[in-house]
Amino acid sequence: MTKQTMTDIAPAAQQADRPVLELTEVGKTYGSGRDAVEAIRSVSFDVRAGEMIAIVGPSGAGKTTLLNCIVGLLSATKGAVLFEGQKVKGPPEAMAVVFQDYSRSLLPWRSVRSNVELPIRKKHKDRATVRAKADEALAAVGLSHVDRKYPWQLSGGMQQRVAIARALAYEPDILIMDEPFASLDAIVRAELEDLVLTIVRELNMTALIVTHDIDEAVYLADRVFVLTKSPTEIAEEIEVPLAKPRHQVSTKGDPRFAQLRSHIYSLITEIAAR
Ligand code: ADP
Ligand code: MG
Where's the ABC transporter domain (predicted)? Predict the structure, then answer.
């Protein structure tokens, strides 16, 4: 960033160049006094429109805490989060979130279809449009046949697919995901990684995913941020120059994929030993 202030730039340029998401020295301490737990020391980064960012770090690093600060469910105790130029104070309308804990993200008293349709109705008043968008998303995650069932009648993996369908169907400006594929088997996981990549690309969405899986981070992202242990900071930012669209076999077979994976693996091992 240059030292130029926003008032020095013409309004049109402000819009065009402005990152979608801007974190400036974000810190988070839970509690106070002797019970204080500093989860995030200081994290700063920008996310540009259309980028896919992966955040990796060891368990307990502060990934979920950071994500909750970004989506406005927690307020940072230091620094600021700006989304589309506005300070985040609560969950912004143009964001969709897929939580790590799928069992708490769906409404148990509503059917699968109704869970997926609910957020779409905020954007589209026309009933046929709402239905069509829900149909498309449910088909994409392979769950058209269970649309009348309730979340508690489905396996964990299926519930998480409903949560992913709901987020994609909403067509947010930014999609935020906290370890969304952690509970899924390898094949479903690969399918859903590709589904998310395809839809994010088609709709020109910006996305940020938190994961502890190094392969997943490299496969999905344009840039990977590796976090230190808690209280967390960014240990390193890694560009992923692999061609897009990605492909499960050829991308993972690219020698640069192996190099990036080893580099991040060494870095995380080194962080764990600190
Ligand atoms: P991750 O998602 O990377 O596993 P978390 O963000 O869940 O990490 O946790 C980061 C740190 O903050 C941990 O030390 C954890 O114990 C602590 N922490 C998380 N949530 C709370 C909370 N509600 N109150 C106090 N400490 C918390
Ligand atoms: Mg977590």
Answer: 21-254
